[in-house]
Amino acid sequence: xxxxxxxxxGRFAPSPTGPLHFGSLVAALASYLDAHANHGEWHVRMEDLxxxxxxxxxxxxxxxxxxxxxxxxxxxxxxxxxxxxxxKQALQTLDELGLTYPCDCTRKEIHxxxxxxxxxxxxxxxxxxxxxCADTTSLRLKVKGDIAFEDGLQGLYQQNLSRDIGDFHLRxxxxxxxxxxxxxxxxxxxxxxxIVRGYDLLDSTPRQIYLQHCLGFAVHQYSHLxxxxxxxxxxxxKQNRSPALRAEDAVDNVWLALQFLGQSxxxxxRKATLxxxxxxxxxxxxxxxxxxxxxxxxDEAQ
Length: 302
Ligand code: GLU
Ligand code: ZN
Known about the structure:
Elements: E1 9-12, H1 22-37, E2 41-46, H2 58-68, E3 78-79, H3 84-96, E4 100-102, H4 107-113, E5 116-117, E6 120-121, E7 139-141, E8 146-151, E9 155-160, H5 161-165, E10 168-171, H6 179-189, E11 194-198, H7 205-215, E12 221-225, E13 227-229, H8 250-260, H9 274-284, E14 295-297
Parallel strand pairs: 1-2, 2-3, 11-12, 13-14
Antiparallel strand pairs: 4-7, 5-6, 7-10, 8-9
Residues 103-105, 126-127 line the site of zinc ion.
């Protein structure tokens, strides 16, 4: 895929592990409005790389809800489950560069041996010297150095990969491709310029930028939205049993999401048609109005 006239291309990349909830609506809406305000394209990619975590019918249900909420996406939806050959190719490139190695450490061994960092156990490079082990399918990427980037909302963000993270998985023990590999390969091959997504992925971004450097890909402009917290302080997610969005609440939920995103829609828009609300939202979208705080409570959303 080649995009010679590079202009704004954005995306929403849900994991079909359950129905869409309010937290994902916020990410979908912000990425959509930022793309449209910049006369760009907006694509949907299903991150169904991890079959055991995916729920039957969830991908279709997500697309249906997006459609009933008034989202229109450009081009066909890309399914990561069909992109194996592309991920394999990237692994081969990294292998040729001498940047990967097989690792057969179990989770238990890692927890016993490695220091616990802010983002989980910091892998100690134990298997870096090991020759390929026949029964392992797990691969790690050798990391080094500092990665810093200017987030469109959160400002300068920096990590030292060896100190803070350690060599991370590109392919897991069960043979599945890791999230970071899929996301980096697809974001590059789909030609995205801007990534607008939830705060929970901010600390993954240096790993993704490092992988982009290794593979010779361009680095995107990232903006990480604040997390939506429920009034009990928990984040909206499937794990927290956040309710599925209902088609009949489209206007109300889009209005609430705009409010959460700091766009201050007028109260009467909450009773407007979905079309009027969308027109207002696209005409008035300003990324700079989105609050930067890591989590914002929204009492009304359910
Ligand atoms: N699939 C990820 C999620 O639903 C989002 C990935 C991304 O936006 O980079 O949390
Ligand atoms: Zn190991």
